[in-house]
Amino acid sequence: MTSKTKVIQSDLIPANLAPIIEALCLVSKDVAKIIAKGSLGQSLAHQVGENSDGDGQKALDVIADDMFAAALKETSVRWYASEEQEDAILLNEAGKYALAIDPLDGSSNIDVNVSIGTIFSIYETKEGAEESFLRPAKEQLAGGYIVYGPATALVVTFGNGTMQFVLDPDTGAYALAEKAMEIPQTSKEFAINASNYRHWTKPVRAYIDDCLAGVEGPREKNFNMRWVGSLVAETHRILTRGGIFLYPRDGRKGYENGRLRMVYECAPIAFVIEQAKGRATDGSDPIMNQAAETLHGRAPLVFGSAEKVDRVAAYHDLPEEEVSALFGQRGLFRG
Ligand SMILES: O=P(O)(O)OC[C@H]1O[C@](O)(COP(=O)(O)O)[C@@H](O)[C@@H]1O
Ligand SMILES: [Mg+2]
Ligand SMILES: [Mg+2]
């Protein structure tokens, strides 16, 4: 990329947010290079600490966080809230925006060469940090992610559809690949960490049981399962070929609201999905209408093809006796 060409050039990016998106793209190129060096480069996967959510902090979590914070300090971002920092930090006193970020999502995959990513969310800033981030997800100005996979791609929405830009290794710039992504409405794939089956609530167990029952069960068709352990990778797959993702609340201590954090994971992913004509709920109610109570507060997350997400909500609405019934007696809409 010559110094003249911008890292991302598109009239589809609102002018007021372009400098922030450019900063995210420039840092993402450096993060992609660090990841691409793998074990030839600095060690990325060893634990260097613990974040406020009690997760082990990998070296790359912290490296990426430092890189994004430093670059965004030069933009109009006033508050910077990160998975890797206890509290939001003041970057630019005069900044107009509040940015929340999961600098490195899918950390358990860093050392096994599986796709990982960065998730971000942008709001109009308010005076204080809490009021800037603890607000309904539908107030986001922008939401998106960068996935570091076989291709490095930026998927972003500003409220007028979901766009995909791909990093062209030949030019070193992100180029528009899709102007309006739409989630395919039919798919036979579901994504859930099935090892937690015994901890799930009855509606979620019933929904998965009925998928597993295949053609012999009430769904009368067979399904396939995927679980990458990287939210951005699952999101990208579902945006591209449909399906449903579930990280529900479960009975484990600390998982009363699932594992994913509202401010820098659920809210931006919900925004991207809804703008691609999909659906994102906590199992029953839209994520976009909800606000986190604390910066690292969690929310159960179910998203994907609208009909599938609606079906999960219907399981939550079933009377207790019907949920517990063996599959086949459920009064659910057929199809
Ligand atoms: O290991 P589990 O319980 O299956 O959870 C996997 C989920 O955890 C996450 O890795 C959490 O994100 P971080 O890696 O940023 O902490 C998601 O990307 C992924 O969907
Ligand atoms: Mg994450
Ligand atoms: Mg993370």
From TrEMBL:
Residues that coordinate or bind Mg(2+) 1: 83, 102, 104
Domain Fructose-1-6-bisphosphatase class 1 C-terminal: 183-316
Keywords: Carbohydrate metabolism, Cytoplasm, Hydrolase, Magnesium, Metal-binding
EC id: 3.1.3.11
Cofactor(s) listed in the protein's UniProt record: Mg(2+)
Catalytic activity entry: beta-D-fructose 1,6-bisphosphate + H2O = beta-D-fructose 6-phosphate + phosphate
Gene3D superfamilies noted in UniProt: 3.40.190.80, Fructose-1,6-Bisphosphatase, subunit A, domain 1
One annotated GO molecular function: fructose 1,6-bisphosphate 1-phosphatase activity
Co-factor: note: Binds 2 magnesium ions per subunit.
Pfam families, per the entry: FBPase (PF00316), FBPase_C (PF18913)
Binding positions for substrate per the UniProt entry: 105-108, 193
Signal peptide positions on this chain: none
Family statement drawn from the similarity comment of this UniProt entry: Belongs to the FBPase class 1 family.
Subunit architecture: Homotetramer.
HAMAP family xrefs: FBPase_class1
The protein, known as: Fructose-1,6-bisphosphatase class 1
Organism: Thalassobius vesicularis
The organism's taxonomic lineage, starting at the top: Bacteria, Pseudomonadati, Pseudomonadota, Alphaproteobacteria, Rhodobacterales
